[in-house]
Design a protein that fits this description.
Number of strands: 5
Number of helices: 2
CATH class: Alpha Beta
Strand order of the largest sheet: 1-5-4-3-2
CATH topology: YaeB-like fold
Radius of gyration: 13 Å
CATH architecture: 2-Layer Sandwich
Structural class: alpha+beta
Order of helices and strands: EHHEEEE
Helix content: 10-25%
Largest sheet: 5 strands, mixed
Length: about 90
């Protein structure tokens, strides 16, 4: 699988202290907590993973035709807005 990071995502990753390796790891081994099958041009999903003990949410879309994962955004979920396990909005 290839990964595609837009300039916007790279800026957000730098602002939020996430590396490309961390994001790739979350995509490969994290838990999908929400799917958006009707998104275009590709279905997307919200994935929960961890960078050590730090929770990470990654929104990405997968294009099976060229085996590319398009990273849309990444962020650390706000504990005031998410459940204790960061998998559900409050």
């Amino acid at each position: 699988m290839k990964f595609s990071f837009s300039g916007h995502v790279f800026r957000r990753m730098a602002e939020r202290g996430f590396s490309p390796d961390t994001i790739e790891s979350v995509i490969e081994s994290g838990t999908v907590i929400k799917s958006y099958p009707d998104d275009t041009p590709y279905p997307s999903r919200l994935i929960l993973g961890f960078d050590g003990v730090r929770p990470v949410h990654v929104v990405s879309a997968y294009n099976s035709e060229d085996d590319t994962e398009y990273v849309i955004t990444v962020y650390e979920p706000d504990p005031l807005k998410w459940s204790n396990d960061f998998s559900k909005r409050r």
